[in-house]
Amino acid sequence: MTPGARVAAAIDVLDVILAGAAAEQALTRWARGNRFAGSKDRAAIRDHVFDALRCKRSAAALGGAETGRAIMIGLLRQQGADLAALFSGQGHAPAPLDEAEREHGTPPLEKADLWNLPEWLVPAFEISLGPDASDAARSLQSRAPVSLRVNTRRMTRDAVITALANEGIHADPNPLSKTAVTVADGARRVRASRLFQDGLIELQDAASQEIVALLPEGGRCLDYCAGGGGKALAMAAAGRQVAAHDIDPRRMQDLPARARRAQATIDQIDTASLEATAPFDVVLCDAPCSGSGSWRRAPQAKWLLTPERLEHLIRLQDDILDQAIGLVTPKGWLVYATCSLLTSENEDRIAAFLDRHDDWICTFQRRFNVTDNGDGFFTAHLTRA
Ligand SMILES: C[S@@+](CC[C@H](N)C(=O)[O-])C[C@H]1O[C@@H](n2cnc3c(N)ncnc32)[C@H](O)[C@@H]1O
């Protein structure tokens, strides 16, 4: 496909997303309907679509409307691309810009446009991040680093970096976590690599890895909200005895295969059996959240979050912490984590927990901002006084 044809495809996919489809589904559907497109084409279209979603407001301002075409015009204008060459009307390229489109477009001036956030989230970012709010919002407009977790039980980080280089993947140590490397080149080759197939590396954000590295010492650990099991696998690789639970067990369906690949043992526990298997020395609650710390990876989510949805998540976070208390040994640890940047999902939840449970104390809290090394995260360690 020509660069222009890829832009035309991205416009079509964006229109489907603007009409209410999930980004991943819209991209998959486009690929199924256009089997002539190769993997490089699909990757380029995906990059256009995700770049556009990260910068939807500023791109719409620069493109003069909130349509797939206007957003792509605005995005490419923002990126300094040659619009006349891409919108040539030749072959499958989009039609040339009309006069209004050539003249249209105002530079983003409002904070919500500059920060590429829904208006109601601007004050929430300001309250949560103070002077760092602008940097955080702007960081969410660029692509996230591709980070890998080295299975350090089986291979050192240096050895993995050398072995990756032999497979054409250039990676560097990530300063955020001793188990993390960041891929500088060759990210698309990771899943097919021998190291990945043999369970010596996993795709995992570096801050997510560090949350596991920071966990208090303890014999039996429960990943209470395990999801796909990224943190459970990291705990097992750190030599911990790990059980994984999720209220929706389907979320853990890939975990047995991932654990086998990593040569790790993880017990999967369903909700009905939890009480019988408790107590645990460490219970990690990696709670459902806005995901605001990882909106670089899932940019559509920032436009779908509403104040009502955030309120619902906050109630869920409180409930999960209250449910998990009963699973912790008397001298054990309850660890809270989110990939959120918002105080209302982080420090405020810990303060509310301590208000409800005056026999508990918080011994440690850490916030990870969105940086070139990792996603935004928060964690807190709770124990009985
Ligand atoms: C942020 S995700 C977990 C991500 C995962 N820990 C990882 O590192 O890949 C939150 C998970 O919590 C689960 N969940 C929601 N409500 C829950 C509840 N009441 N008890 C346990 N798990 C719950 C969701 O199904 C979801 O998979």
UniProtKB/TrEMBL annotation:
Kindly indicate where the leader peptide sits in this chain. Answer: none
The SAM-dependent MTase RsmB/NOP-type domain sits at 136-385
Q: InterPro entries this protein is in?
A: MeTrfase_RsmB-F_NOP2_cat, MeTrfase_RsmB-F_NOP2_dom, RCMT, RsmB-like_ferredoxin
Establish whether keyword Transferase is in the entry.
yes
Q: Which UniProt keywords apply?
A: Methyltransferase, RNA-binding, S-adenosyl-L-methionine, Transferase
Any GO BP: RNA methylation
- Which Pfam family is an annotated match for this chain, by its short name? Methyltr_RsmB-F
What superkingdom heads the lineage? Bacteria
Record-level Gene Ontology MF annotations = RNA binding; RNA methyltransferase activity
Q: Which family does it belong to?
A: Belongs to the class I-like SAM-binding methyltransferase superfamily. RsmB/NOP family.
Descriptive protein name? RsmB/NOP family class I SAM-dependent RNA methyltransferase
Q: Which organism is it from?
A: Roseobacter insulae
